[in-house]
């Protein structure tokens, strides 16, 4: 079989050279082609077959491409598959079949070795027996189909037709076209949206593709599973338009470090409708560094996240090579990015000057240098200004900015928008109003509230409250804490009792209790005991008893003759008293102080026989004289009683 004649081989070459490149040869016939025939065939013109033409079934090879020959390849066979390592032929166009000698064609992983030589300008693929060429199985053999480094460093490649390449289960596009400096056109299968929906890594996919001008081929890609896009278009120095990818769904994206780094021909980058998840997208470092972009439209970005898990880094992201830069974005993370590295080379897109409306009006209250604008329409510009800090002023409410008029008739939409954004703005204020409410504080009656404004001085309405038993004493301002300020007189002039718009100030009535009529209560007097006067002791003179003549006893048998009332009765003859006196003492020492002479005179010259008893006089020894007098009186009464008894006995 290996000794097939040269004539037979030449016949095969002749068929191919005659433009019958689609003629199918059986595998045995291919095996019979001698080395000499292969060598001879290699010189059969620019389109000369390099050995054999791959049988075409479901897809035809390019008309200008030579037939496929394993001899033009470094390859190896593993697990019943042919693994292509590197092309070593000289053709400018190569068609790679999906099957060779009944075996699946697959690419070996060779990250540091170009698949195609610099002579190859175009590569395409053909379907053989329903088979398409596949990628490799990854560094550790765990990937079903990886295009990692597939065309990396194919520096002569210009056109790539991937229509008949097997993309089944492809997830990795890392460095797929890395450093393909001359690639201008890439044709993708019709089902590219389904294909890309599984891709998770596209880092450096087009890194160094200096001739790539447009991304039209990528406009329908579904990048929702993409997590890594670092340096994806880095160094694409001829790329001028990103609008085909402006609406990508990149909701799984975690990092885009250096994604457009060095794309110096990009004067505008439009990623305005990218769908991002702020909890995942954390790395935007150097994303636009070194581009020529003067306008980067990120207006639809929303990096906010309720979980707070993500914090996007924009370190040096906007350090473009442009002399001026405008970033369109409403997202706070973008606005708060560090633009400090631009100040040496870039002029801020706008200097926003805000005046608070006080003072001389010549000094701005706040000045902002910004590279970010919300959008080019008036609503976006005003929303951006509204998001800036607002001044405060006691007794007033800020109601907005008054912008000076700018030229809106000449220039591009961007230029006009930037003029509007940078227009001088002066704060507008509304005077705050407040209400005075009158609290009766225990009184009766009604009083309407009094309306006031900050800066207004007015008299308080006259008090109309009354309170029985009390007199109105003015007002006090009641604070929120319940304490009160100094009193205000009725009808007092007041101003600026509150500086908050819509506040209510309560004035609480103050009352003084009226004095009550007082009935004097008699004061008990302390009784005064008069000092006793010293009495002169008076010695009472006893009055001599009148002797009673005792009646003669009448004869019991003889009735008594009634006595003549006109005839005086002779008193009984008094008995001679005991010489010792009635108390057993001698007369001279009688307790009544009576003298031995029954008829002794009183000190005042009155006769003792008149029955008078001398009372104590001033200067007398009061207590002793009184006792002495009473004792004498008692003795006289006893004596008189005794005489009466005796007189009765006689009768």
Largest sheet: 5 strands, parallel
CA(first)-CA(last) distance: 214 Å
Mean pLDDT: 78
Percentage of residues in DSSP E strands: 15-25%
Q: Unreliable stretches, pLDDT < 50, 5 or more residues?
A: 1-61, 577-616
Task: Report the total helices.
Answer: 8
- Which structural class should the secondary elements be placed in? alpha/beta
Radius of gyration: 70 Å
Helix content: 10-25%
How many strand elements?
Answer: 25
Relevant terms:
25 strands, disordered N terminus, four-stranded mixed sheet, five-stranded parallel sheet, alpha/beta, elongated, 8 helices, 651 residues
Task: Summarize the topology.
Blueprint lengths: L5 H12 L9 H5 L3 H7 L31 E6 L2 E7 L5 E5 L1 E2 L2 E5 L14 E5 L32 E3 L23 E3 L4 H5 L71 E3 L24 E3 L26 E5 L3 H4 L11 E2 L1 E6 L10 E5 L1 E2 L4 H9 L9 E8 L9 H9 L3 E7 L1 E7 L10 E4 L3 E3 L10 E9 L14 E3 L7 E11 L21 E2 L80 E2 L3 H29 L1
Parallel strand pairs: 2-5, 3-6, 6-7, 7-8, 9-10, 10-11, 11-12, 11-15, 13-17, 18-23
Antiparallel strand pairs: 1-2, 4-5, 13-14, 16-17, 18-19, 20-22, 21-23, 24-25
């Amino acid at each position: 079989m290996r000794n097939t004649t040269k004539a037979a081989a030449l016949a095969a070459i002749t068929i191919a050279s005659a433009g019958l490149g689609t003629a199918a040869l059986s595998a045995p016939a291919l095996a019979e082609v001698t080395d000499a025939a292969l060598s001879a065939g290699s010189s059969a013109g620019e389109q000369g077959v390099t050995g054999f033409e791959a049988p075409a079934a479901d897809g035809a090879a390019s008309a200008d491409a030579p037939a496929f020959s394993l001899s033009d390849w470094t390859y190896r066979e593993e697990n019943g598959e042919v693994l292509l390592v590197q092309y070593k032929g000289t053709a400018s166009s190569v068609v790679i079949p999906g099957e060779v000698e009944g075996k699946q064609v697959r690419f070996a992983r060779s990250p540091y070795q170009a698949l195609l030589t610099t002579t190859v300008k175009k590569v395409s693929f053909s379907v053989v027996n329903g088979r398409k060429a596949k990628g490799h199985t990854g560094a550790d053999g765990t990937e079903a189909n990886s295009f990692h480094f597939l065309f990396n460093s194919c520096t002569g490649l210009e056109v790539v037709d991937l229509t008949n390449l097997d993309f089944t289960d492809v997830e990795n596009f890392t460095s797929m076209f890395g450093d393909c400096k001359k690639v201008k056109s890439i044709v993708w299968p019709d089902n590219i949206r389904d294909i890309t929906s599984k891709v998770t890594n596209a880092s450096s996919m087009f890194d160094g593709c200096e001739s790539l001008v447009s991304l039209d081929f990528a406009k329908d890609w579904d990048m929702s599973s993409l997590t890594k896009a670092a340096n994806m278009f880095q160094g694409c120095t001829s790329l001028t338009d990103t609008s085909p990818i402006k609406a990508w769904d990149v909701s799984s994206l975690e990092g885009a470090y250096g994604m457009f780094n060095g794309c110096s021909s990009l004067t505008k980058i439009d990623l305005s409708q990218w769908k991002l998840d702020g909890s995942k997208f954390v790395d935007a470092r150097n994303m636009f560094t070194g581009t020529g972009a003067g306008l980067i439209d990120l207006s639809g970005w929303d990096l906010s996240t309720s979980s707070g898990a993500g914090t996007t880094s924009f370190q040096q992201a906007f350090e473009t090579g442009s002399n001026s830069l405008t970033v369109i974005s409403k997202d706070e993370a973008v606005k708060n990015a560090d633009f400090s590295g631009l100040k040496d080379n870039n002029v801020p897109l706008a200097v926003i000057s805000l005046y608070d409306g006080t003072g001389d009006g010549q000094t701005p209250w706040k000045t902002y240098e910004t590279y970010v604008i919300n959008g080019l329409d008036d609503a976006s510009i005003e929303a951006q200004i509204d998001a800036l800090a607002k001044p405060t002023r006691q007794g007033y409410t800020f109601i907005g900015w008054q912008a000076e008029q700018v030229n809106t008739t000449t220039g591009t939409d961007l230029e006009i928008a930037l003029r509007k954004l940078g227009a001088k703005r002066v704060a507008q204020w509304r005077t705050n109003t407040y209400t005075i409410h009158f609290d009766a504080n225990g009184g009766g009656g009604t009083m309407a509230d009094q309306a006031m404004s900050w800066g207004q001085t007015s008299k308080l309405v006259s008090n109309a409250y009354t309170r029985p038993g009390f007199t109105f004493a003015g007002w006090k301002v009641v604070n929120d804490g319940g304490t009160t300020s100094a009193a205000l007189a009725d009808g007092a002039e007041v101003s600026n009792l509150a500086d908050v718009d819509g506040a209510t100030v309560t004035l609480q009535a103050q009352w003084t209790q009226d004095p009550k009529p007082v009935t004097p209560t008699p004061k008990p007097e302390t009784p005064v005991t008069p000092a006793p006067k010293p009495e002169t002791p008076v010695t009472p003179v006893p009055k001599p008893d009148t002797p009673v003549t005792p009646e003669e006893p009448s004869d019991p048998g003889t009735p008594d003759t009634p006595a003549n009332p006109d005839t005086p009765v002779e008193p009984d003859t008094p008995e001679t008293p005991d010489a010792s006196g009635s108390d057993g003492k001698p007369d001279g020492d009688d307790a009544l102080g009576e003298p031995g002479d029954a008829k002794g005179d009183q000190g005042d010259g009155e006769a003792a026989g008149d029955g008078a008893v001398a009372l104590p006089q001033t200067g007398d020894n009061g207590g002793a004289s009184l006792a002495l007098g009473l004792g004498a009186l008692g003795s006289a009464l006893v004596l008189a009683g005794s005489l009466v008894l005796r007189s009765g006995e006689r009768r």
